Amino acid sequence: MRVILGHIAKTIYRDKYLCLQKRLLDEYSKVSNTDFADLDTLSKLLISGEDHRFFYHIGFDIIAIARAVKNRLLYDKIEGASTIEQQLVRVLTNDYQRTFSRKIREILLATTLTSVIPKRAIPKIYLNVAYFGAGMTGLQQTFTKLQISKADKISLEDAASIISRIKYPQPRKESIKRLTQIEMRKQHLIFLYNKHLNRKYIKVYG
After folding, report:
1. How far apart are CA 125 and CA 134, in angstroms?
2. Distance from the CA of 42 to the CA of which of 60, 123, 147, 166 falls in 20 to 30 A?
3. How far is CA 17 from CA 50, 88, 160, 189, 195, in A?
4. What would the DSSP string read from start to end of the chain?
């Protein structure tokens, strides 16, 4: 299925795919040579918080999509269903249009990523380009802003604090409300991390 949908994406969105492929390879090269601290813990927290079926879908999560549609139709509740691959496609193509056609294109292009780079590298690449708040695009700026040394091993608390800012980006002007949201998200991420780390059967972290 991934191969078929990937072929369709490469055909229909050829120009977009070629640009995406180039950006992806460029970012993969950067991550492969990075000296950032414990990317493994950061990647695991990202998977726990954003896409816990990461290793079991082909680029999009049909279960999450079905749940989001159901909650929107039955409860008028808006919730995200984007996988890490989809979020990475969005960032690398710089396409944030709120349209159905963009969403379909994003889903299809997300199925092409593992034909270019290993799946395990995708969370690390996303972390290296993600927006964490004002003046905090990618890990280098985020480490500097939060005064975390790249030479040190990141603590679980610091790693969770960073990942929490994907859902709640740090504003230019700090507010009690946002700091509270970040702290609550951080504690939830640590809970999920410990829960997923101890799974015996369907492993969240592959």
Report:
1. 20
2. 60
3. 24, 13, 32, 33, 37
4. -HHHHHHHHHHHTHHHHHHHHHHHHHHHHHHHT---S-HHHHHHHHHHHH-TTGGGSSSS-HHHHHHHHHHHHHH--------HHHHHHHHHHT----SHHHHHHHHHHHTTGGGTS-GGGHHHHHHHH-EEETTEEHHHHHHHHTT--TTSPPPHHHHHHHHHHHHSPBPSS--HHHHHHHHHHHHHHHHHHHHHHT-SSS-TT-
* pLDDT for position 148: 85
List pLDDT tens digits, range 14-70.
999 999 999 999 999 988 877 665 789 999 999 999 999 999 999 999 999 888 888
Q: Which of the listed CATH numbers 1.10.3810.10, 3.30.70.100, 1.10.230.10, 1.20.120.640 matches domain 2-197?
A: 1.10.3810.10
User: Quick check: 88 and 125 in contact, CB under 8 A?
Assistant: yes
Residue type, position 104, single letter = I
* CA dihedral sign, ordered 164, 69, 124, 57: positive
